């Protein structure tokens, strides 16, 4: 399967080897430059790098701005737990192949590579930003995070210097390939997880902390890993006793499980530098927004009384004030530019729960600079505390909450609630959302990061995890 997609010249994933060669050439050119620049400089101390001086790593890390001077070690796992899954990309998700979305280190194919994606690049996107938009899929998150951590300035190759340990097991991809197979058994869905835990439990640094300073990242919602003992959907990775002490960074967390930490869904914006982010922020701030609110979603007409159906009715009743996009048939993933176009033209976006409480659309909306409107606290406030200001006094700075029961009872209308917010307050909220954009995106930055001290989603994740690992030392250290 992998060989087939690589050989297809029309498939953008086939460009990957070429990209690798280019990167290698660039890397060696850089090395040469550095070598030439420093060849002349006399440096008597440089020859004696202390290898076991415990003060040295602390100072290095503080210089590079890693939280508390900590560093992250990234395990090198047997390829069956990550790389091998990438080569099965054709069978990891139902309905479509993940292969193109796993290209470019998981960012997907650059916009505009897909048919029909031309609008975002030629009509909407400022030319200087063309290289920072990709067609990205949430299921690639595990790969995106792994790649970024490998080249992150807070990474150490020496586990003795690490404060936190990243386990790059692609658990979402691993379970994905068994979720829809009619003949897959519960044991099939858990086999990789059981094998991973048995490998991990044998590692000396795992044994030292019982896993309290270890973490993983999951590109599927937590409920896909919490199959109940009497059967049902998903795998049971997160319920396995062997995972009990490991922090799970996951796109939708279980609000009652303190080991789950919410992280953003990947959007299609992968800026390379702080300048890319600022250009987009200026652009998103300056767009005219003729619609008061917008909604992108697939109505589940089969479900009687589905809340999304109610929102669609509200939108129709609001006439020109509202605009919708039907996400049926995977349209909002395959043609994400249509979603961005929708949200760039609206001041607010509606974010009901769907099949689960969270949705990628929350992040598309905020990256587009529109203010999200929530109907369940579990959609964001109880999810992403590392990334968005939460708590009753702060949620209103960047979002609106509407009581779904009052809406159902007909006591309020969405248009009524939103139109009553003073224009100055709307502007303030929009500014707040736009300020938050860098932390909500997975950058395509190199080792230096976005620069200018600007942090992206992975930087926030590392800071948070380094702090958490340092706090949890109390749980295992004697
Ligand atoms: C691109 O824009 C044109 C005009 O704005 C529109 O008619 C067309 O449907 C758009 N194409 C896609 C793929 O959205
Ligand atoms: C399930 O069926 C597919 C083909 O239908 C087959 O390739 C696969 O080996 C089967 N898996 C198991 C666990 O029986
Ligand atoms: C989790 O931590 C507790 C306390 O530190 C320890 O007793 C237990 O064995 C650990 N569990 C695993 C699976 O490592
Ligand atoms: C809607 O309004 C009525 C009348 O004021 C009130 O009795 C009812 O509790 C309200 N419903 C909700 C869900 O707030």
From TrEMBL:
Key word Signal present: no
Signal peptide: none
Xref: InterPro entries: Exostosin, Exostosin_GT47
GO biological process, one term: xyloglucan biosynthetic process
Domain Exostosin GT47 residues, every copy: 71-414
S-adenosyl-L-methionine in keyword set: no
GO CC terms: Golgi membrane
Topology in membrane: Single-pass type II membrane protein
Subcellular location per the Swiss-Prot or TrEMBL entry: Golgi apparatus membrane
UniProt cross-references to Pfam families, sorted A to Z: Exostosin_GT47
A GO MF label: galactosyltransferase activity
Keywords of this entry: Glycosyltransferase, Golgi apparatus, Signal-anchor, Transferase, Transmembrane
Domain of life where this protein originates: Eukaryota
Region ranges (Disordered): 44-64
Similarity section: Belongs to the glycosyltransferase 47 family.
Record's protein name: Exostosin GT47 domain-containing protein
């Amino acid at each position: 399967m992998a060989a087939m997609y690589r050989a297809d010249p029309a498939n953008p994933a086939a460009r990957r080897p070429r990209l690798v060669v280019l990167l290698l050439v660039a890397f060696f050119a850089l090395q040469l430059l550095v070598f030439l620049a420093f060849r002349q400089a006399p440096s008597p101390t440089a020859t004696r790098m202390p290898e076991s001086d415990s003060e040295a790593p602390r100072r290095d890390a503080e210089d590079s701005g890693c939280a508390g001077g900590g560093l992250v070690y990234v395990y090198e796992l047997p390829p069956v737990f990550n790389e091998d899954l990438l080569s099965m990309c054709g069978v990891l998700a139902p309905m479509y192949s993940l292969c193109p979305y796993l290209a470019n280190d998981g960012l997907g194919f650059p916009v505009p590579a897909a048919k029909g994606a031309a609008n975002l690049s030629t009509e909407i996107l400022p030319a200087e930003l063309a290289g920072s938009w990709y067609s990205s899929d949430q299921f690639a998150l595990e790969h995106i995070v792994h790649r970024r951590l490998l080249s992150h300035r807070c990474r150490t190759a020496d586990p003795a210097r690490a404060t936190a340990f990243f386990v790059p097991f692609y658990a979402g991809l691993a379970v994905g390939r068994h979720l829809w197979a009619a003949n897959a058994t519960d044991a099939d869905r858990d086999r990789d997880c059981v094998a991973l835990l048995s490998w991990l439990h044998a590692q000396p640094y795992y044994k030292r902390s019982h896993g309290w300073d270890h973490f993983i990242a999951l590109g599927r919602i937590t409920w896909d890993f919490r199959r109940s003992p009497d059967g049902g959907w998903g795998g049971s990775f997160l319920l396995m006793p062997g995972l009990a002490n490991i922090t799970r960074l996951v796109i939708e967390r279980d609000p009652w499980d303190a080991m789950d930490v919410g992280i953003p869904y990947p959007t299609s914006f992968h800026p390379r530098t702080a300048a890319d982010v600022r250009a987009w922020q200026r652009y998103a701030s300056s767009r005219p927004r003729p619609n008061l609110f917008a909604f992108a979603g697939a109505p589940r007409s089969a479900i009687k009384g589905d809340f999304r159906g109610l929102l669609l009715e509200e939108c129709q009743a609001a006439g020109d004030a509202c605009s919708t996009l039907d996400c049926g048939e995977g349209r909002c993933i395959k043609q994400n530019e249509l979603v961005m176009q929708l949200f760039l033209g609206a001041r607010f976006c509606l974010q009901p729960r769907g099949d689960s409480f969270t949705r990628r659309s929350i992040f598309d909306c905020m990256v587009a600079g529109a203010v999200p409107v929530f109907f369940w606290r579990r959609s964001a406030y109880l999810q992403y505390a590392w990334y968005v200001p939460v708590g009753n006094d702060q949620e209103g700075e960047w979002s609106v909450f509407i009581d779904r029961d009052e809406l159902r009872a007909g006591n309020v209308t969405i248009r009524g609630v939103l139109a009553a917010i003073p224009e100055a307050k709307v502007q303030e909220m929009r500014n707040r959302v736009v300020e938050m954009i860098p932390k909500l995106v997975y950058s395509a930055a190199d080792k230096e990061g976005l620069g200018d001290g600007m942090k992206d989603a992975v930087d926030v994740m590392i800071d948070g995890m380094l702090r958490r690992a340092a706090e949890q030392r109390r749980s295992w250290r004697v």
